[in-house]
Amino acid sequence: MNKTLDLSALRSFVAVADIGGVTAAAGKLNLTQSAVSMQIKRLETLLGRQLIARQGRGIELTVHGEQLLDYGRQILGINDEVWNRMTHEAFEGKLAIGVPPDILYPHIPRILKEFSDAFPRVEVKLISTRTAELKEEFAKGKLDLILTTESETAKGGEKLASYPLKWFCQRGNNQI
What are phi and psi of 142, to 5 degrees? Predict the structure, then answer.
């Protein structure tokens, strides 16, 4: 039977362990001392292990507490990363990108997948058409970014890469 850890209780436990006391951790978490103590007790009950040994006014982690602390930091780190990535408003909105068909494959789909994974709240609109049309749309402000294959860099543009032109044909075919 799978059980689920209480992330609030786990956060309280990690804060107590990191700060070294229930009162200080409660202040950091904006909770009462009794609320933090109850969350830790609930976590101990859920796991069936004593996690903290109280030493007068201080605390000391038990062997099980030390073990949980490492996992707790990892779990909370992943939780916070997911929460920030999925809810951070600085990385949401729409992005219109223009790419001519001759440079679309094979790289652009992979790049868009990586971008989507990194910024899931950004809606990407991909336009693939001739460079002249892309430049017109960019000038009108309808595209945020365009990639083109031109020898000269336009004003306000930036050269990303330069590759030599290569021609390929079958052996013995001298008609090209």
Answer: -85, -15
- In CATH terms, the superfamily for domain 90-146 is Periplasmic binding protein-like II (3.40.190.10)
H or E element, residue 128: strand 122-128
Convert the pLDDT of each residue in 80-93 to its tens digit: 888 877 777 667 78
Q: Select the CATH number that applies to the domain covering 7-87 from these four: 1.10.1740.10, 2.60.40.10, 1.10.10.10, 3.40.50.2300.
A: 1.10.10.10
Q: Where are the alpha helices (DSSP H) in the chain?
A: 7-19, 22-29, 33-47, 63-87, 107-118, 131-139
Global confidence as pTM: 0.53
Residue predicted with more confidence, 129 or 173? 129
Nearest to residue 49, comparing CAs of 61, 39, 64? 64
Tokens found for residue 86: 């999925």
